[in-house]
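Chapter review: from sequence to fold.
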Amino acid sequence: MFGNSDMAKRRMFSMDIIDTDHFLDMPATTQLLYFHLSMRADDDGFVSSPKGIIKLIGASEDDMKLLIGKQFAIRFDSGICVIKHWKIHNYIQKDRYRETIYQEEKLMMKEDINGAYLLDTECIQNVSKMDTQVRLGKDSLGKLSKEEECPELSHEISGTPFIDLPKIGSVSQPDKVHTVTEEDIAQYQEVYPNVDVKAELKKMKLWLDANPSKRKKNVKSFIARWLAKEQDKPQPKRKKTFEEIKAEMIERYGDI
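The token string follows.
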């Protein structure tokens, strides 16, 4: 219906985002623009022609500014925008997923613990610096990729390390890791109370070690998705202890 006709173009919306006062307080035209932008986004949540969509549905630039101001969308200098809560709304299976073509903009993003996009200001500064260097000496510096210039420096280790999860490396840094600290675990445990977070992190490491071709760039997002799936699994029924069974029998039949 919108561009490609494959199944991956089906879009979903989380009530955790659109059923909030923060969202519903916006004018109807602004909400409508949000839905149209989301329907036309690629599989990473990037929208190539927000101005065209604004014109198509009769919205205004003020509606777009409001979405940005209330942090429902992020706009880049290139004119492209991204839906901030895209990965909260949508989970696309790997066999249907097509990575965005807007890699320069994607490299400017990081994700919070819930998977919402944030601008990675440190990466933006490094990319800007690299672009300046390329203009000054393109022949010698042009071979460096933006990913190599910005190897997720935003993930500084501040706390007690618990485990290192391997991630996708680069030519200059082939053996990159994402360090999970005890402080990180405390946050994960609060969000996913039914999960043994430390045990699952050890499973993740084993899986990533056994499947190097499936390692991730954004390990935080990988962790959040893994733990969310575990959280949603039905909890096994705990076996009753002898004392509990005895107490039930006494309650039902009396003290024999």
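Two observations follow directly from the output. Residues 121-136 form the longest helix (16 residues). Strands lie at 46-47, 73-75, 81-83, 109-111, 117-119, 161-166, 177-181.
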